[in-house]
Structures are given as C-alpha cells and as structure tokens.
C-alpha cells in the first residue's frame, strides 16, 4: 500500500474513507492533485451559487491537466474526490443535518453518519495524509475580534503549522483580526507570502489590508520554488492572492463587517456560527457584491493554484518517458511475480481451406483442439518469458479442465478454482487467410471468478508488481480488483478480450484506476460508446512513425479516427495500446510535459499466418514482460511484436518457441 494511504488509514478506518479512482490514480502515478474544501459548499455560499462555483473551480483545475480532490463527509464516510451528485447532495438545502467539519469534528460526524463540509483545518488533515501539496480555498480562518480575551482562534492556523502544504487563498477572512492572525502564524512557524502584490497582505474582499508580508512572490515559478523549499520545515505556507478586481470599497466593507459583528453580540451568535451569519449579513448590505467577490476570488485562486501545481510537479516529480513509472515502486523480489486473472477455455479451431460460403454446403477444412482463453494465454506466455506467474481462473473437473491444467505445467496454478461446472469452451472459425470470422462458446464457468474468490487469494496480489485481468471477469470482480490494486499502488493491465465484454469496466468510474489497456479497433469503438459524457483532454498530440514513410498515411488516418476516445482515456489511463492486426499497433501515452505521444509500430514482417489465435495475447505478454524488466517502450513493443510473429506462424496460440 502507498505510504500515504497507510498513514490516512491510521487515522480513519477503511470503512470511513472513499478516495475516488481519479485521485487514487493521480497519486499513484505522481500526477498533480489539488485539494479543495467543501465547507464553501455547505456553509460558505448560498444555493445554487455554492454548487455552480464548486463545479467551476473543479473545471478550472481540470483544464490545467490537474485532478481536483474535493474533501467532504457523506453519510459518515470521508470522501476525497466528489462526483457532481455528491456536490449536489451537500449543496442543496435539505432537512438532514450538515456539519462544518474541523479536525475535532471527525469522530462525531463519522460516528453519527452525518454529512459534513470540511473546513480548511479538516481538509488539511486529509490532504497531508494523502501527500497532496497544494490546497486552494477562499480565505482561511484566524484570530477573531477580541480573540485575545475569548481565545476564539481558528484551528486552521495550528493545522497549517503541522502540514508542509501551500494553502492558496485570498488571505484570511475580513471579519477576523488580521493583525493578530499574522502574529499567531509567525509564532507557530507558518510562512506567509503574498502573490504579486508588492508585499501587501490582501483583506479578502479588497487588495490591501494595511499589513505587510515577509515575502512576495511574483510568479507560479517562484511560488513553486517556495513550496519546494518548505518541505523540510514540516510547516506550511499561506500564499495570499489578492482579488483580481475590487468590487467593494474597503471603507464600506469594514463598516458592514463592524455592523454585522455588533448584531452577533446583540443576538448571542458565537463560535463557528459567526462566520456564516456575518457573511450572509455582508452580502445583504452590499446587495450581493460581497458574494460576487467571493466567487471571483475562489475561481482566481483555482487558476493561480493550478499554475503553481504544474510548476511544482514538473520540477519535483520525475516520470518515466512513457508514463509507466508507476512500476518504479517495484522491489526486486516482486518483479518476477505478476498475477493474471482471467479466462481459461478449450478452443476448437476450425480452419477453412476455401472461401467461406454460408449456404449449407460442406466446406473443406481442418479442426484442432488447443488450450486457450485470454488470461490463460497471457499467463502461459509470461511464464515462457521467465516470469513466476500466479494465474487465477476457474475450470471444471472434466477432460477440458485437465487439458488446461496440463498445458500450464510451468505456471503456478494453485489459485485456479476447480468446479463441477463445465470448463469454458469456444469454437473458433478461421477463414482461408487465417482471420477469425466468428466464435461460439460457453464462458459461464468464468462467473465463478468472484470477489470472494479473489479475497481468498489476496496474499498473491500483495506481493505482485502488476495485475493483468481480462474481459471474462464480472463487472463486480473487475471493480474490486481495480480498487484493491489502487489502494496497494499496484498497476492494473486490462485486456478487453472481445467486443461483447470490452466496455464492461467502463460502466462506472472504476476504470479510471487502470494503468494499461490494449484494445483492438473494434473493442475501442465499444469503449468509446461507453464514454460519451467523459471530458476530453486538450493536450497537444505528438505523432511519430516507426518503420519509414510508408506508414505515414496509415498513421494519420488511424490517429484521426482514434484521437477523441484516446484523449478521454488518457486523462486517467497512462498507457493505451491499440492493436491494428496486420498493420501493427498504435501506442498512446501521456508525457510529463502534458502532451500525448502517439507512436505507430508496423508488424515485424508480412508473412502468410498459420493461425491468428493467441497472437494478440502473445503481443501483450511480450510487452508486459518488457516493462516488468524495466525496458523502454520501443524495446518492450519489439518483444511483443516478435512474440506475436512467432504465434502467427504456429498452430498453437502460445508456442513453446517463446521460452527464453
């Protein structure tokens, strides 16, 4: 498990936290993430402005290629990375109690199953545990007026002193004692910097408060450098960004705040109820200008924070050229032990020797029986490449089951479930040229590869560097595998298997936790249909062609047809291999500079194939073996293409000639 996830689970049980696949995947792959609070949704802005502003802030962050991680509590569970339905749940007025959640409030809110909007303090607790370095908000809490007597001091200040995180805000809320707040921050060791304001500390609604900061940074580059150099201090940075446009005169806002605080005294409003009341009263007095300013500065802070995040991550997070650096976590003892979870079946391959005419006539042909199944083939091939593969599947206690088990004598089959159910079988019809024309089969045995079966074999997963799963698994099993592997920082490779099941994991957001996928063109079409409403990455595409200029036209045509779905997938899945049959393959990967690399690799040679069965699976196994050995993309693809070529010239889906 990622050390950050381990630390958060020391504070919260696994049943009390839900980290979205997008955030998990971004953290696991060292992509930039920005934390956002949710108290602005529940208590900071009125409906519907609270919801629209929260969604717009997330959109701003996403537009910069960064993953937003809004933190909240929903039904007693800590959520990191909210979907729109959860934001609506928190933002639409309802009878269910919604609590402002600071650090002290977590035990109560979780134990009572309540909804809660996390304050700056509450959000910092979670962000620190996850290793998120930048947090965007409106304004932080501070020392209240007369705080020297009441000791009414926001927990935000003490929490910021414990977290080496940069909080990008418009300073502290104007209703507070700004001078004493700055003194307190100095006492507890928090670096306070202003952003491009010549050292003037902003006053939330206005650009100047009358107080100065120790330092002023002029650009995202300088701010990122400041964050980089605070990592060893253990305390955080308050970066005070002035509102871009002043809509209210400072004298008028100061008077409105003074009058609102007077009403609080008269009505006995105190503690955490002061801030929402005063903000509401100020909004009334200023005829909505204060709320407009609040929304304006929130969006501006999201923009500034995103620019800083990109600068910080580009300088401090080193990635592998092809975005497969999630494998850098591998220990030597793990490299040789991948886990494959998928289908095992016996293929009855019918090879027609003449043109196929389906009019009832007898066709001349051959038939052979071989052990097959995408998962079985990949496990078989990986083992021949020298890996100690753990294979999880299900077979029957019949002749075909015995045939499959005997074909895997060199593979660890301890985790294969044996059942009274009939072993999966498939009739494959090949044309005269060796192309697959149709398949008929019974794959019901694979329904026994359940979540409970995987749970019984978790020890094998804990120790593996990579999990490969094929499309034969149920949606529930796929989701469990992805979620478990994301928590344990284990990359997941998905082989779609068939157009009938290719889109199965894309029915929910769990697919965003995948690290590699390898669909063919038809499978990618079905995946694309399932992603109609997904946002598209607007990254520049860099195209290169291997094998000379003859492939340039093909490459351009292929990219034009695929770039829309690739740009949707690439936001979350770092590496996408699209197999093109006898035209080779296309590799798409997200680069450290937020560009998309698309490389076309032609097949090694054009020969009349003996059989296409298993060629794609051998291609995947060769590529996977390459990345497990730390080879480059070109070297790994070369291994895969060579394996596919050997399979094409063999009657066996996985020929023994692959053995290293």
Give your account of this protein's structure.
The model is unreliable at 1-10 and 318-334 (pLDDT under 50). The longest helix is centred in the middle third of the chain and has 28 residues, at 289-316. The chain folds into 2 domains: 3-316, Indigoidine synthase domain (Indigoidine synthase fold); 325-658, Ribokinase (UDP-N-acetylmuramoyl-L-alanine:D-glutamate ligase), CATH 3.40.1190.20. Helices cover 38% and strands 20% of the residues. The protein starts with a helix and ends in a 12-residue tail after the last helix. A hairpin with a 5-residue loop joins strand 26 and strand 27. It is of the alpha/beta class. The chain is built from 23 helices and 27 strands. The strands form 4 sheets. Strands 1, 2, 3, 4, 5, 6, 7, 8, 9, 12 and 13 form an 11-stranded mixed sheet that branches. Strands 18-17-14-21-22-23-25-26-27-24 form a 10-stranded mixed sheet, sandwiched between helices. Helix 11 crosses helix 14, helix 12 crosses helix 13 and helix 22 runs antiparallel to helix 23.
């Amino acid at each position: 498990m990622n050390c950050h996830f381990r630390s958060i689970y020391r504070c919260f049980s696994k049943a009390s936290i839900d980290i979205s696949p997008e955030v998990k995947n971004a953290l696991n792959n060292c992509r930039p993430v920005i934390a956002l609070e949710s108290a602005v949704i529940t208590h900071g802005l009125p409906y519907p402005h609270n919801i629209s502003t929260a969604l717009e802030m997330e959109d701003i962050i996403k537009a910069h290629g960064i993953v937003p991680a809004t933190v909240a509590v929903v039904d007693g569970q800590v959520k990191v990375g909210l979907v729109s339905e959860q934001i609506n749940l928190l933002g639409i007025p309802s009878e269910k109690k919604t609590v402002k959640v600071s650090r002290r409030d977590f035990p109560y809110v979780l134990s009572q199953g309540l909804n809660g909007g996390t304050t700056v303090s509450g959000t910092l607790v979670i962000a620190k545990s996850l290793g998120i370095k930048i947090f965007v908000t409106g304004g932080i809490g501070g020392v209240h007026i007369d705080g020297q007597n009441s000791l009414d001091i926001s927990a935000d200040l003490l929490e910021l002193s414990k977290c080496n995180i940069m909080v990008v805000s418009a300073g502290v809320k104007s209703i507070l004692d700004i001078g004493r707040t700055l003194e307190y921050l100095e006492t507890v060791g928090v670096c306070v910097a202003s952003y491009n304001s010549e050292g003037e500390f902003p006053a939330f609604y206005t650009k100047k408060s009358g107080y100065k900061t120790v330092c002023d940074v002029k650009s995202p580059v300088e701010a990122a450098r400041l964050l980089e150099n605070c990592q060893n201090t253990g305390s955080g940075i308050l970066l005070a960004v002035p509102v871009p446009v002043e809509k209210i005169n400072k004298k008028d806002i100061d008077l409105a705040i003074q009058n609102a605080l007077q009403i609080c005294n008269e009505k006995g409003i105190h503690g955490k109820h002061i801030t929402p009341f005063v903000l509401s009263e100020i909004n009334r007095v200023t005829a909505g200008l204060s709320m407009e300013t609040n929304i304006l500065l929130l969006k501006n802070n999201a923009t500034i924070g995103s620019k800083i995040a990109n600068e910080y991550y580009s300088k401090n997070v080193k990635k592998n050229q092809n975005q497969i650096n999630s494998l850098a976590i591998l220990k030597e003892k793990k490299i040789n032990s991948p886990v494959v979870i998928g289908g095992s079946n016996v293929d009855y391959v019918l090879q027609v020797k003449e043109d196929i005419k389906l009019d009832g006539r007898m066709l001349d042909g051959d038939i052979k029986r071989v052990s097959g199944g995408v998962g079985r083939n990949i496990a078989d091939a990986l083992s021949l490449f020298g890996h100690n593969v753990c294979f999880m599947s299900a077979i029957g206690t019949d002749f075909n089951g015995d045939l499959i088990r005997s074909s895997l004598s060199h593979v660890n089959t301890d985790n294969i479930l044996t059942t009274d159910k009939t072993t999966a079988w498939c009739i494959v019809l090949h044309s005269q040229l060796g192309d697959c024309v149709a398949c008929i089969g019974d794959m019901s045995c694979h329904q026994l590869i359940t979540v409970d079966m995987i749970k019984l074999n978790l020890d094998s997963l804990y120790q593996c560097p990579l999990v490969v799963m094929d499309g034969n698994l149920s949606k529930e099993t796929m989701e469990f595998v992805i979620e478990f592997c994301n928590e344990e920082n284990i990359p997941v490779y998905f082989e779609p298997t068939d157009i009938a099941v290719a889109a199965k994991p894309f029915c929910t957001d769990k697919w965003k936790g995948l690290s590699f996928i390898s669909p063919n063109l038809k499978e990618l079409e079905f995946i694309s249909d399932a992603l109609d409403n997904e946002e598209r990455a607007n990254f520049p595409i860099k195209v290169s062609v291997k094998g000379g200029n003859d492939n340039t036209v093909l490459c351009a045509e292929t990219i034009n047809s695929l770039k829309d779905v690739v740009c949707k997938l690439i936001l979350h899945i770092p590496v996408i291999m699209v197999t093109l049959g006898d035209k080779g393959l296309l590799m798409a990967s997200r680069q450290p500079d937020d560009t998309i690399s698309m490389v076309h690799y032609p097949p090694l040679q054009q020969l009349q194939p003996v059989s296409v069965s298993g060629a794609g699976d051998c291609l995947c196994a060769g590529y996977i073996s390459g990345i497990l050995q730390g080879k480059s993309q070109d070297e790994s693809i070369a291994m895969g293409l060579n394996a596919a070529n050997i399979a094409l010239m063999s009657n066996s889906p996985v020929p023994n000639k692959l053995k290293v």
